[in-house]
């Protein structure tokens, strides 16, 4: 007895744009640049049809780009994934290096937040006491 797998839902480029937050233009760019892990299927009329796997992958790509991963590294990562098993150590190395950069950025932002919080409290205290005059006044 033959078994049939459930047919994967085909999604339009507009549906994928809504689900990923990417514009239609960005989705076409990702395809042109080889950032997808599989070929985008097309209808007989040439319209792109995406799968849930495409959406899942694009959501990962969005987070990697939002966190500052350079396009060249994202391309390399996609290339490694497309190649299939056997290069997991290289994928890990790429992601590890990116994670270290992100963690350094977070530390730097936390230092910035600390300075801003301190300065905010200084201004708030002076204003509460009615002693705001002269705070960083270059004309004084």
From TrEMBL:
Keywords: DNA-binding. Residues 10-80 form the HTH merR-type domain. It comes from the Bacteria. Gene3D superfamilies: 1.10.1660.10. It holds the Pfam family MerR_1. Signal peptide: none annotated. InterPro entries: DNA-bd_dom_put_sf, MerR-type_HTH_dom, MerR_fam. PANTHER family: HTH-TYPE TRANSCRIPTIONAL REGULATOR ADHR, REDOX-CYCLING DRUG-SENSING TRANSCRIPTIONAL ACTIVATOR SOXR. This is MerR family transcriptional regulator.
């Amino acid at each position: 007895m033959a078994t049939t797998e459930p047919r994967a839902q085909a999604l339009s480029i507009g549906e994928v744009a809504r689900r990923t937050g990417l514009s239609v233009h960005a989705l076409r760019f990702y395809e042109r640049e080889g950032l997808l892990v599989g070929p985008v299927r097309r209808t007989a009329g040439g319209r792109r049809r995406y799968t849930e796997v495409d959406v899942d992958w694009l959501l990962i790509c969005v987070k990697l780009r939002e966190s500052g991963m350079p396009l060249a590294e994202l391309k390399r990562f996609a290339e490694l994934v497309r190649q299939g098993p056997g290069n997991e150590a290289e994928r890990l190395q790429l992601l590890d290096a990116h994670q270290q950069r992100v963690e350094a950025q977070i530390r730097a932002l936390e230092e910035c937040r600390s300075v801003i919080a301190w300065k905010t409290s200084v201004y708030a205290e002076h204003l509460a006491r009615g002693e705001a005059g002269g705070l960083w006044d270059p004309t004084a």
